[in-house]
Amino acid sequence: MQKYGRTFVIGDVHGAAKALEQCLERSGADLTNDRIIQLGDVADGYADVYACVEILLRAKHLIALKGNHDDWFLDFINTDFHPHYWNHGGPGTLESYLEKADKPGRWRATESGYKTALVSSDIPHAHRQFFMRQRHYYVDERNRCYVHGGFKPGVPLELQRPQDFYWDRTLWENAQPVPEFHEVYLGHTPTINWETDQPMNAYNLWNLDTGAGHSGRLTIMDADTKEYWQSDALPDLYAKGYR
Fold this sequence. Notes:
This protein has about 240 residues and is an alpha/beta fold. A hairpin with a 4-residue loop joins β6 and β7. The protein has a five-stranded mixed β-sheet, covered by helices on one side.
């Protein structure tokens, strides 16, 4: 069995590399020895998506889960198609990778999506692999399940639709005990919807999307002790705001 130091869980990042750096520093996470589980939605939002991936790739024991925004970006990587879904934070991803491709500012919105100079070949190979290899869910040795959105309780995970893992909100919104797992960690549905930027717990469910994609904070939690650390509020870190 793989031996780790601590097990850290990180909520939805949404391109906020400054917040990610603060969380890793404040928690004292060791990217060489600790297991880092990131709950998805690295892409879209603030314009540091490239930097977020670079930071996460430094983690030797990284478990990266797929979020719905990551899936949209993977569609682009696979097809060169710029979906209209990028109206939901996509300019942050575009600006981040256009800057690295030495094509800053070369995009505009259209009724059906985006017209941009960014092409999939501009995405570094390691970054393409990062998004291609994100998992739908992860169950650890203590029977703790980690997922971006949710799933249908009582149905074996391997029999469920992949998109449910990164789109479902009912697991959290209709919170009840999930007996097949010791604990479930998820994101996708921001706690700021309940007027808090702190993690929320209901039965054996933990919601760690504390609004980093909007006006909240990014959270990292020690899964064993439940101690957590947070970034500064995102509007304080990014004066230009969410893209």
